[in-house]
Amino acid sequence: MAENVPAGAPVTACLLIIGNEILSGRTQDKNLAFIGQGLNDLGIRLMEVRVIPDIEAVIVDTLNDVRRRFDYVFTTGGIGPTHDDITADCVAKAFGLPLIVNPEARAILEAHYEPGQLTEARLRMARTPEGATLIENPVSKAPGFQVGNVFVMAGIPNIMQAMFASLKHGLVGGQPLRSRTLRVEMGESFVADGLARLQERFPAIEIGSYPYTRNGAFGTRLVLRATDEALLDAAGVELESLVADLGAASAWEATPAGG
Amino acid sequence: MAENVPAGAPVTACLLIIGNEILSGRTQDKNLAFIGQGLNDLGIRLMEVRVIPDIEAVIVDTLNDVRRRFDYVFTTGGIGPTHDDITADCVAKAFGLPLIVNPEARAILEAHYEPGQLTEARLRMARTPEGATLIENPVSKAPGFQVGNVFVMAGIPNIMQAMFASLKHGLVGGQPLRSRTLRVEMGESFVADGLARLQERFPAIEIGSYPYTRNGAFGTRLVLRATDEALLDAAGVELESLVADLGAASAWEATPAGG
């Protein structure tokens, strides 16, 4: 748990994306990037993502592996009303807790549906492991939940985003990673040697090189990431001069949050 | 390896997406869905995806875990010319093989660049574990490679897709999973009970329910997946009548390959 992390150690997280439809390529995941950025803003580093199928044994084993190795675990998918929504069952099994119809969740659904409309299928969405804390869902009411360091969210992006907004105030992070991005109009192989030397001089900075092509021309985004703004500024000056010496046009880019 | 799979057992695959930029949310992955669909067309099921950072120990340990558990492992990312491209080094370590400048890869790069332009940084892209088989890259020449059941590809989508086209003829798959998709104009909770009964009657079919909203109205895509077309047709008839009995409008959708 985050509370036990020594001062200065990065706070870590793992995301489990649960669903056959992601693995088959039918559905393009849109949650990873949002969660990665959102966690980084809180000073929590997303260290691993696993996409796994709707198979109970796989979900239970994966949960038990990653909840011990990371400070926080987030899951998306598998908490709807249909037979293939088995995430709540799996979290209960992983923690060795009984699966119950959560009274608070039931009350939320009863208030939401017309009298008589809370069918058995819909009541599935009130099931949580015993003792779970609910995560509010302002979009469609059926809540997510938290057990220990595991946060269970919906897979539908706008609902997941609303749940993440509900839960994030309870997370304890460290220092957010800041970044600077220099877009350079040359292929990355030209700048590779200088970049390796810069990395040696600034071991506390994570230096990334991300090539792109635009209208057939090669370009590279050079990204500096660290928690220390002054260090980033110092490395940024050197990076700019390194690129200028190579005769390439470059420009600093606005960096998206978490980038 | 696929050759040792008992007849009828599904052929399985794992994808490792390597790169800090995916975990931070800076870059949206576009390779998972393409590979999931491409493998399914070959009768190979993508069973797990892991997104991991550019950290040698993590990459080596993950490779050694998944290459033993799945018939095929595919990796994307980390084979460019810069210091943060460490995938070749990690694959060599995982297999306990020396990392060499591959003579065939070197010849490809020498033929591609003008004399004197094959810099040390670019020569990094010719490094493979000893004994690796190259994967052709018709886009930008620097090849991917295969060692055992591990296929190492670039992260840039158009290059990855070209490499996948080069390597796929060498993969041995089973029966492709076929699917039928019925789009229903009602929330999934209405159809949930009938769907659970249908699933009980057709245990060999994977039945998925994927809600969506359009113009504020709830709808659901009901997906049947199996290798047996006749079985899918039979279940399709029952699904259509189940939905009609509920009074909902529905329509069969063209299904993307692999969906």
In helices, the fraction of residues of chain A equals 25-40%
Number of helices of chain A: 9
Radius of gyration of chain A: 22 Å
CATH topology of the largest domain in chain A: Molybdenum Cofactor Biosythetic Enzyme, Chain A
Assign the structural class of chain A, choosing from mainly alpha, mainly beta, alpha/beta, alpha+beta, or little secondary structure: alpha/beta
Report the count of strand segments of chain A: 12
Unreliable runs of chain A:
1-6
Largest interface: A-B, 66 and 65 residues
Strand order of the largest sheet of chain A: 2-1-3-8-7-6
What is the CATH top level name of the largest domain in chain A? Alpha Beta
What is the overall pLDDT average of chain A? 93
Q: List the quaternary state of the chains.
A: homodimer
In CATH, what is the homologous superfamily of the largest domain in chain A? MoaB/Mog-like domain
Net shape of chain A? elongated
CA-to-CA gap between the ends of chain A? 25 Å
CATH architecture of the largest domain in chain A: 3-Layer(aba) Sandwich
Task: Give the H and E element order of chain A.
Answer: EHHEHEHEHHEEEEHEHEEHE
Kindly list the characteristics that best describe this protein.
alpha/beta, four-stranded antiparallel beta sheet, Molybdenum Cofactor Biosythetic Enzyme, Chain A, homodimer, disordered N terminus
Structure, briefly:
2 copies of one chain form a homodimer. The first copy, chain A, has 259 residues and is α/β, with parallel strands linked by helices.
